[in-house]
Amino acid sequence: MSKDFLPPKSDVVFKLLFGDERNTDLLTDLLKAVLDLPADEYDEVVIVDPHLLRDADSGKLGILDVKLKTKSGKIIDIEIQVLPTPELKERITFYISKMVTEQIGDGDDYDTIKHVIGIVITDFELIGNKSKYHHRFTLYDKSDDTEFTDLVQIYTLEMPKLPKENDNTELWNWLRFIGAERKEELDMLAQTNPNIERAVGVLMELSADEKARMLYESREKARRDEASRLKGARHEGKAEGKAEGKAEVAKNALSMGLSGEQIEKLTGLTRAEIETLLGNIG
Predict the structure, then answer these.
(1) How far apart are the C-alpha atoms of 215 and 175, rounded to whole Å?
(2) Which of 77, 170, 200, 276 has the smallest set of CB atoms within 10 Å of its CB?
(3) Which of 103, 129, 126 is nearest to 114 (CA)?
(4) Per-residue model confidence (pLDDT) at position 265
């Protein structure tokens, strides 16, 4: 992390920036850069949950996202992921589906369902074999490129695929802001757009706020602890796998009539370990 500012790509910092009711102008400008919606959709942007989830305060790894509704009732969910997450595509699909089904109650007609839009920003490559950094997915027949419905839409924004040179879009500027690591980048981007200039100012205020820093540091600690736990579990699994593999080799060697000394040399196991795995082999 830069000593000068909190990283906007942290999910906690991202939500403090874009999930605050006081910053709906920043959120709206970001949405306009991502989505192709009529301008009047943004006349009424309502943040569904303007508060950080309790998981952020406790340091536990929860879901931190920004949810909002537009003028016509479209439901939009924005999520940012810094580290590769197992089954992320499945999780996104589940959340989008839930955003559809939770609109329907007993006796409701299907025509009451509003569009649901999921926006996923990643700091890793999510869509393989594609160089584009901005994708829009709907339900369609890929054999003849016929769309079934756009009731469900998923937008993916992959920051590692962002070209180094400006492609003259506001989306490029916003993603560079979100992924900024140096103050010089922020200063440069502040000159491209009044809303990004204000976002830089809000970010600097957050960076000077003790509570915001504590939230960020708590979140990062939880992330490191989780990564350490997963790493330990992988090492343990590998160790168990190696032991099982060596046991299998030892069993095969024993069935071939090799001596205990020969099996020791073959597997690298001690006599005690071999006996523990196979019993006394003599």
Answers:
(1) 23
(2) 276
(3) 103
(4) 64
Amino acid symbol at 176: R
Q: 59 and 222 in contact (C-beta within 8 Å)?
A: yes
Contact predicate 10/213, CB 8 Å: no
User: What is the reported pLDDT for 62?
Assistant: 43
User: Which residue in 80, 81, 89, 74 sits closest to 35, CA to CA?
Assistant: 74
Return d(Cα 44, Cα 66) in angstroms, integer.
Answer: 16
- Give the pLDDT of residue 262: 66
Is residue 188 within 8 A of residue 176, CB to CB? The reply is no
Q: Strand pairing partners for 69? A: 46, 75
Do residues 144 and 125 make contact, with C-beta atoms less than 8 angstroms apart? no
Place of tokens 């959120």: 27
**List of residues 6+ apart from 111 with CB closer than 8 A:** none
DSSP string, 56-77: HHHT-----EEEEE-TT--EEE
- Chunked in runs of 10, what are the mean pLDDT values of the chain (282 residues)? 80 92 95 95 85 46 73 94 86 91 88 94 94 96 95 97 95 97 95 96 95 86 70 54 67 70 70 68 50
* Nearest CA among 94, 90, 63, 84 for reference residue 230: 84
- What are the CA-CA distances from residue 264 to residues 70, 248, 269 (Å)? 69, 13, 5
- Give pLDDT, residue 251: 75
Distance of CA 239 to the CA centre of its chain: 29
- CA-based nearest residue to 154, from 194, 116, 200: 116
Put residue 139 in one of left, alpha, beta given phi > 0 → left and psi -120 to 50 → alpha: beta
The radius of gyration of the chain from alpha carbons, rounded to an integer in Å, stands at: 26
**What CA–CA distance (Å, rounded) separates 54 from 173?**
31
Q: Could you tell me where the beta strands, DSSP code E, fall in the chain? A: 46-47, 65-69, 75-81, 116-122, 134-141, 146-158
